[in-house]
Amino acid sequence: MKSMTVHHIEEISAIVKTGRILTNESDRFSYSFDASFGTYLPDVVIQTKNVEELAELVKFANREKVPVYPRGQATCLSGGPLPVKGGMVFDLSIMDDVLEINEEDLIAIVSPGVLTSDIHKAAEQKGLMYPPDPSSSHVSTIGGNLAENSGGPRGLKYGVTKDYVIGLEIITPQGEIIQTGGRTVKNVTGYDLTKLIVGSEGTLGIITKAILRLIPKPPASETVMAIFDSLVDAGRAISKILSSGILPSKMELMDQASIVAVENYEPSGLPKDADAMILIELDGHPAAVRDEAEQVSQVCKEVGVREVRVPQTKAEKEDVWKARKLVSPAIVRIKPTKISEDATVPRSKIPEMCRRLQEIKKKYNLHLVVFGHAGDGNLHPNIIADKSDKEEMLRVEKAVAEIFEAAIALGGTLSGEHGIGTMKAPFMEMELGAAGLNMMKSIKQALDPNNIMNPGKIFPEPGQKLVLSK
Ligand SMILES: Cc1cc2nc3c(=O)[nH]c(=O)nc-3n(C[C@H](O)[C@H](O)[C@H](O)COP(=O)(O)OP(=O)(O)OC[C@H]3O[C@@H](n4cnc5c(N)ncnc54)[C@H](O)[C@@H]3O)c2cc1C
């Protein structure tokens, strides 16, 4: 990779006629970090809504072998948008002008910079639903969600971003503008490039438009809060509910550390002495969800729940879900550095994973908080530490590696939704094996032979290790 020259900046200025080119260090610094670790200064930041200009810039980058880093709102938890090799950052959060809902075709057409929560609101106004609901939906872009294949609490019943994308417009690493898929729900014409791009973390192209599938909004929902004296019992309740013939729309876990953190942050009567809490949402026909809420309460009683609460009013239900949303901001009050993992295990292994996480927490004497989308095995073990404490960060590095090893040993995966980025690249071979990883590398090499699209992500550099202690 070349570092950029004055001549390069002149070429870029000749291409970008409608947007802005940021070269001041203070401007570039704002694009040097995301919600994970590390700071990397890009050489230049481009803000333009013009797809043709972006495509020309990619052609220039491909010719001059300059790295291109697509970026949404930088809420990534795995280092995805970090410009680790300098070059150009494309600020796609400004491309937010298209948000069309088509009720007849049950689709939404969106620009990449549209916030996901704005898609939720627009669909709901027409009695429809865009199911993927990452907890960051009010601050993250649909472009970032597509690139990361993001999921959320509703993933349990409705799946993740890839399940709702039927078409894309992308700029290829050669700077061509192409369409994949289309407006039809069924489409088997050739390779499924749409699904290849979704989840590719900006390494195979830049998404400049998306066609999303919508579904009718369920007419009713019920919430159940189940409080447990043992985290492992909560894990057992999750497995039992899922095998009882009921499919909740959400099933979220909060361990004692997250309950205490939220209650200290914004008191709402959460049981600070409980070891764990599960929050369950059932959606569908009003009579069916009432009946299912009773069944869920019964299953929890069978595994020794301490207390079951069923909020009655809309406001009470919202309070329950607000508690879950507050976990992330609340836990960083304990210590300033949050290492947010999303290792995921098969549902039947949730109790065993909970047990292993408790062991890791004890072994390394760390603030390990467990919460997340437990219903689909996507626990979020978060380690709360202080990055200025080098000795503690060394223990964090070891604990993170053991969390990944535990998840994989239980038949799980490194990441259920946050992606690989820089943070999990060193562990890729552990999950995929050398041959599996090589197949992915071959796809990257075939589509982006000059490695200009988001270089330094997903694939480990030789000898790369997770380093958080520097
Ligand atoms: C408090 C908090 C809660 C979160 N909760 C969840 C959750 O519940 N579920 C979940 O899945 N994630 C969650 N995340 C992670 C994060 O919000 C998601 O990964 C989100 O999709 C990132 O969107 P973004 O706009 O911030 O993208 P960025 O962080 O800017 O970029 C993410 C990746 O997408 C690429 N990219 C961005 N735009 C494009 C584009 N148009 N074309 C090609 N590539 C592009 C970037 O290169 C990068 O690799 C959470 C993060 C935070 C901080």
Structure write-up:
This protein is α+β, with helices and mostly antiparallel strands and 470 residues long. The protein has 3 domains: 6-94, 2-Layer Sandwich (Uridine Diphospho-n-acetylenolpyruvylglucosamine Reductase, domain 2), CATH 3.30.43; 99-216, 2-Layer Sandwich (Uridine Diphospho-n-acetylenolpyruvylglucosamine Reductase, domain 3), CATH 3.30.465.10; 220-409, Vanillyl-alcohol Oxidase, Chain A, domain 3 (3-Layer(aba) Sandwich). The chain has 15 helices and 18 strands. It has helices spanning 6-15, 25-29, 51-64, 116-125, 142-148, 155-158, 193-197, 231-242, 256-265, 286-302, 314-325, 327-331, 350-364, 390-409, 428-447; strands at 20-22, 44-47, 68-71, 88-91, 99-102, 107-110, 128-129, 165-171, 177-181, 206-213, 215-216, 220-228, 250-255, 276-284, 307-309, 337-340, 367-373, 378-385. The chain has a 7-stranded antiparallel beta sheet, with helices on both faces. A hairpin with a 4-residue loop joins strand 5 and strand 6 (107-110). The radius of gyration is 22 Å and the shape is globular. 49% of the residues are buried. Flavin-adenine dinucleotide (FAD) is lined by residues 34-35, 69-77, 80-81, 92, 112, 134-136, 140-141, 143-145, 147-148, 150-152, 201-202, 206-207, 328, 417-418, 454.
Query: Overall pLDDT, averaged?
Result: 95
Counting helices, strands and paired strands, the structural category is alpha+beta
Q: Report how far the terminal alpha carbons are from each other.
A: 25 Å
Q: So what's the overall shape?
A: globular
> What CATH first level of the largest domain would be assigned?
Alpha Beta
Instruction: Give me the Rg, rounded.
Output: 22 Å
CATH topology of the largest domain: Vanillyl-alcohol Oxidase, Chain A, domain 3
Unreliable spans are none
Strand content: 15-25%
Kindly state the number of beta strands. 18
| Largest sheet features | 7 strands, antiparallel
Regarding quaternary structure, what we see is single chain
